[in-house]
Queue: 2 jobs
Job 1
Amino acid sequence: MSEKKPTPESVAQIEFTPSKQGWEDPKTEFKKGTFNWAAIQKSQEYLDLPNPRKWQTTDEDWKLPDNWKQIIFDGLRDRLDRFRSLKLFMDVCVRCGACADKCHFFIGSGDPKNMPVLRAELLRSIYRKEYTLAGKIMGKMAGGRELTVDVIKEWFYYFYQCTECRRCSVFCPYGIDTAEITMIVRELLQLLGLGIDWITTPAANCFRTGNHLGIQPHGFQDSVDFAVDDLQDITGIKVDAPVNKKGAEVLFVVPSADYFGDPHYFGFLGYLALFHEIGLDYTLSAFASEGGNFGLFHSNEMMKRLNSKIYMEAKRLGVKWILGAECGHMWRVLHQYMDTMNGPADFLEVPKSPITGTVFDYAKSTKMVHICEFTADLIKNNKLKLDKSRNNQWNVTFHDSCNPARAMGLLDEPRYVIDNVVNKFHEMPENTIREQTFCCGSGSGIGTDENFEMRMRGGLPRANAVKHVHEKHGVNVLSCICAIDKATLPPLLEFWVPGVEVCGIHELVGNALVMKGEKEDRTDMRNEPFITEESKKDE
Amino acid sequence: MKLFISLILVLILIGIPLIGSNVSGLVYLFGVIIPYIAILTFVIGMSVRVLKWAKIPVPFKITTTCGQQKSLPWINNNNLESPHNTAGVFWRMALEVLFFRSLFRNTRTGLKEGPKIVYGPDKILWAASLAFHWSFLVIFIRHFKIFLQEVPQFIPLLESLDGFMQIGLPILFMTDAALLLGLTVLFLRRIVDPKLRYISLVADYFPLLLIIGIALTGVWMRYFGKVDIISVKQFTLGLFSFQPIIPDGISAIFFAHLFLVSALLIYFPLSKLVHFGGIFLSPTRNMSNNNREVRHINPWNPKVKLHTYEEWEDEFRDVMKAADMPLEKE
Amino acid sequence: MSDKRNIIIGVIIFILLMTIPIWLNLATGTSTERPELEKPKGDACVMDKEYMTSYHMDLLNEWREEVVRNGEREHIAPDGKKYDRSLTNTCLDCHPSKEKFCDQCHNYLGVKPYCWSCHIVPEEFK
C-alpha cells in the first residue's frame, strides 16, 4: 500500500490549545486511522439487535431508521429514569476542567472533544435542550444543541474514542464517570443499529460459541491440549488441564485470548504449571471459555447475556467457587456487575483456598477470586518454591490495567506477586500508575487495525511512562494483568518504545516456579533458556 | 461572547433594584415579594431536585476505587480511597465534601519535545474553590446576626476569628477577602486557560459574576458606603418572622444586594449549582467497594435472552463427541 | 432502600438548616422595633445623627489615630464648634451609660467593639 503510515514524529505533533471556534458544531471529520468499522449485519441479527442493516462508517448516509430521533429521545428518557448516575452526571458538572488533561485521548490527540468534560457535553447539550427548563426556554444560550444526524455521527466518533478507563472520574470533584456516559451513549447508538464490528461480532461469537473468536468446543479442547504439550516440552512435566469436568472444586475462567493470543499464551502456560504444582482440583469450561465480556462495551443487557454463562456453568459443573484469570474489563464485570446481574450465586460456597486454607470472605457473595489474590496468598503462605533468578532476563515494570485499578482496587496483590518472582523491578512515575494509571489506548473494543493512529495517540501517555523507565532503568518488559493490554501494548510499544516486551504476571510466575520433577534443562514459558551465571560467562 | 452575555445579565440584575427600589411602591416588591419567592424556590427547588434523583434507581455499584481494595488480611486496605464499609464511605464523602479531596489530586499535563509528557501538581483550582466555598459558608453564617433576634454566642466568636488580623475598621474579615480572591481566580482561569475558555458556557460565567456582584455589594455596605444596619436588621427580622416591614433609610445598594441574592437563590436549583446536593449522591463516591462481599440489587434487572448450555451442546454435540469431550446427552 | 431513607433525612436537614432563622425567631419571638437609646444629655453631637449612626466607628477610629499617633486633639464639628477628641470626656459626657446607649445597638447586632479593652466602662467606674 502506498498510503503513508503514521510515524511517531507525525503523531507527536500535538496542540493542546483549542481553536477559537466553539465546539457546538457537530460536523465531524472521520479521518482515516481514527475510527472503527461498522458492525456487520449478520452479527447484529444473530444477537437480535434493533435495526440491523448493511452500512459503513465511511458512508455519507448511515441509513438511520425513519423515527431515529424518537428512538434516541425515548431511549435517553428511559435511561435517565433507570440510571441515577446518568441523570446526576448530566446535572451536576460545573465544567471546572479538572478532567480536561487527564484523558489519554486528549493528551495524545489534542482534540478538545476528547476532554472528558466536552465528551460528556456532547450528550449533555442535547439533554439540556430537551429535558431542562433553562434549555427549553433559552436553547443555545443555556448551552443546548439540536439533535441532528451530525450529532449522531459525532457521538459515534467520540464515544468510540473513549476506552471507559475512568481516569477522569478519579479527578472529578463529583466523581463524574465518563465511562458511564460512554456506556449509555453506546446503548443509544445501538438502538439505531450503530455499533462497531469489533464489539458486535466478538459479542455474537461469545454468545454462540463461548469465546470471542468463535472457536468451537473442539477447537478450544485442541488449544488446551496444545498448551499441555508445550508445557511438557518446556518443563518435562505432563500436566492435567481438565475441560468441562464435573465435580471439580474450582472453575477457572480465562479471557479467550489466553489460549491463542501471544503473549497471553505464556501466562496461560504459567497458570497450568502453577495449578499442577499445587495440585489444584479445577476445570476449564468450553461453554464459559471467555471471561472477557464484549457486552460491557455494548450495553448492560449484552453484558448480562454474555456473563450469564459463568454462573450457569459453575452450577452445571457443580464446582465450589470460581477463579478468574488476568483480564481487565473482565474483572470490571466480575467485580462490579456479575453478582448484581446474574446472582445470587447461592449454589456456590465461599471461596476457600484448598492449599492454604485461606477463606476469601471478601468474595463471599460473588464467589469469585482473582488469580493474583490467589497466587499472592500461596506465596504468603510459602506454598511455592520460587527462583527469582529465572526471570533475570527481564527488567520489569508493571502497568496497572484501568479496570482492576479503578473499578476494583487491585493494586498491591500483583505487586506482591511480582516482588516475589523477579529480581529487577522499577515502577513508572507516580502520575501514571495505580489509580492514576493510563490506559493502553485500545480498550473497550476499539483496539482495531483501522483505528491504529488513534490507538497510538491514546496510548502515548502509557508508552511515554514506559519509555521513561526504559531509558532510566533499562526496563525491557511491561507486565500487566489484562488481555486487551497484552494484545495492544506490543504494537503500541513497538511504535513508541521499541525494545520493550509485554508479559502477563503469571508468565513471570511460571518462569520462577520450581516444579517437582522438572527436567534439568527446562526453559522459560517462551521456551527460551534461563540466563544463569554460566550462560552469562559464555557470552 | 458568552462572557459578555453573562456580564450584561449581571449588570442588568444590579441595575433593576438600584432603579426600581427608588420607585415608590416597588420597594415592597424588591424587599418582600421577590425575597420570599426566592427563598421558597431555593428550598423547594433544591429539595425536589434531590428527591427526583433519589427516585431514580442505582442499578449497579460502580465505585471508583482510588486505592487498595480490601482483600487478603495482610494487604493494607485503603479504606478512605477504596472504602469497604459505611464508615469508610462516610469519611471518604466527608473528605470530598469538606475538603474537595478529588480536586486536590489535580495535576497539570504538559508536552515537551520528544515527545515527553510531564505532570506537575496543580493546586490552584483546589485552593481557589476551597477558599470560595468555605468563605461563602462562613459569610452566610455570619449573616445570622441580622437574621436572628438574639445573636447567638458563637457568632461574635466566629467574627473575632475571622477578623483576628485586626486590619482596619470595621475589621477586615478574612473570609471577605478570600471569597473575592477565590472567585477572581475561578473567573480568571476560565478566561486565561484556552481549554477552560473553550468549554465555558454562559452558565459558567454567569453564576461566578453573580456571586462576585453579591460579594461586592456586601463589601461595599460593610466597609465603604455604610447602610443603616439597624434598619436592615429590622427588615430582615421582619422577613424571617413573617411580619415584613420596610423601615425608612435603607439605601438602594442594600436592595441591589438582596436582589442579587434572590436571583442566585432562584437560579440555584435550575442550574449546575445543584452540585451542592448532587455531590452527596454521586454513585462513584458514595458506595463502598465491597461488591464481591455484599450483593447489590438492581430493581430493574432486565430479563434477557440467554444462551443455555443445553442449546450450546445441541449445536456442538458432534464435534465435541469427536474430540472426546464430556457431554450431558450422548 | 436505605439509600432513599438517608437522602430524605438529608433533605429534611437541608430544609431545617435553610429555614432555621425562621424557627429560631418563632421560638424566641421577635420585635421589629428599633432598639431604644438613652436620650443624650447635650443638644448637639460632634457630627449629625445620620452620620453618627452609620459611621461613628470610623470617627472614633480616626480620633484614636489622631490623638495617639499625632497628638491632634481638636475636632471641629460641621457647625464650627470645637470638641476635644476624647471618648471618655466628650462622648460619655452626653452618653454616660454604655449599657443604655452603646450596648443597645451593639448587642442587637452582636457587635463587640474593642473600645473597652482600653477604656474604662463608665458604669464600672462609679
Job 2
Amino acid sequence: MTVVQIMALAVVALGGGAVVAVSDPLRQVLLLSIYGVALALLFFAFQAPDVALSEIVVSALGLPLIILAALRKIRQHERSQDEDSGAR
Amino acid sequence: MSRRARLGLFACAGPALAVVLVLGFRGLPAFGHYHGVYGLVVNGVELSLRHATDMVTALNFDLRAFDTLGEEFILFAAVTGVALLLRELRDESQRGSAADDGAHSFSGASDGLRGASLLLVPLIVALGVYIVLHGALTPGGGFQGGLVLAAGPLAALLAGRYLALKRLAPHAALEVLDALGAAAYALLGLGGLVFASIYVKNFLPLGIPGHLLSGGFMALNSIAVGLEVTGAFLLTWTEFLDQALLIRRRSERS
Amino acid sequence: MSFLPYAVAVWLFVAGLWGVVASRNLVRTVLCLSVVQSSTYVLLLGVGYRSAGRAPIVADVPVVSKLVDPTVQVLVLTDIVIEATVIALLLALVVQAHKRFGSVDPADLRPLRD
C-alpha cells in the first residue's frame, strides 16, 4: 500500500464525513463535488483511470447541476407559497 | 416513525451493522492480494482474442456486453422516470418564449465569459468524440465520453444562453437520441445473433491491436452507449433547469 | 494497514446511513444516500487491486507486467453513471413531494389520498 493511496483514502473518509455532517444542502452540494474529486484521485491511485474519468465528470458537473436546480425550484416554490399566504 | 425513534433505532443498529460489516470484510483477501481468477484471465487473453488494449472497455462492450445491456436500460428507465415526473403540471405553464431572445433569469454573463463558453462548446464536444471513439485503446468509452459530450452544449449555459441551448437541443430531439442509443445497443446485440448465432457476440473483423478500428463491434457499442448517455444527461439537465429557470405557477405570471 | 480501504468503506456506509436516518431535509437524505453508494466503489476497487499492479491497459506496458482486476472497474464505472441518473430521479421525486406537501421534511410527508 503506497503513501498516495493512504492519503487518498484519508481524504475520502474525511470528505464523506463532511458531506454527511453539514446540514445546509447548498454547502453540501459543494462538499459533495469536492468529495467526488477526492474519490476520483483515489481511483487513480487504485489504478482505475476509466472509473476516475467518469467520476470526475459526474461529480464536477452532473450531480451539482441537478441538485442546484432542484434546490432552486424548491426555494422558488417556498417563496411563492409565502406570497400566497401573505396576500390572504 | 418519529425522528427520535429513528435515531434511537440507529443508535443500536448502526454500530451493530458496522461490526457485522467489519467482521465480514475481514474474510476478504487482504488489500493488494487479489485472489480472483476471472480478471487475470481477462487480462491474459483479451489482447489476443479481441485485439483491444483497454481491458475495461473490452469487458464492458464485449465480454460482459449483455450485462451492459441491463445497465443501459436502468439508465434509460431512470431518465424516463425523471422526464415523466418533471413534465409540467396542470397548474403551471412555460414562461419565457422566443421573445426572450435566448436570455433567462441569470443572463448577467460578461462578454469574456460569453466568448470563452462559445469557444468551449466545440472543444468539449471534440474531446467527447475522441473519448467515445478511442474506448478500445485508451481509458474511455461510451459512458465517460457520453458524459463529456453532454457537457459540451451545457457550456452555453455559462453564457446565460439557456434558451438558445433549448432551441439547439429540444426535448423531442434528446428523447430520440436517448432512445436511439438504447435501441442501437440492443440491435447490435441482435447483429451477433444473425451473423454469429449468439446474442451480443462480436461479428465484425477484429483489426490490428492499437489501431482505431480494432476490437470488432466494441467501437459501435461504445458509440451507441455514448449517444444514449449524451441524450440521457442532456434530457435530465434540461428537465431540471426548465423547472428551476422557466416554469412558474400561472398565478405568479400576471 | 491492509484493512484500511475496507475500513473506509465501512465508515462511508455507516456515516451515510446515519445521515439518511437523521436528515430533516429530503435533499440532504438523497445526498447522504450517494455517500452510502460511494462506499461500494471503494470496497469493489479495494478488492480488485493487486499490490504494485498497473492499470489494465496494455497499450504501453509489457505483456508480462502485473495488472489490476478490470472486472470490478467495469462494475464501478457503469454504476457511477447510473447513480447520477438515479439521484436525479430521487430529486425529481423530492421536487414533486415539495409541490404536494409544501415541505421537504420527511416528517411532513403523508400518505397520498386522492
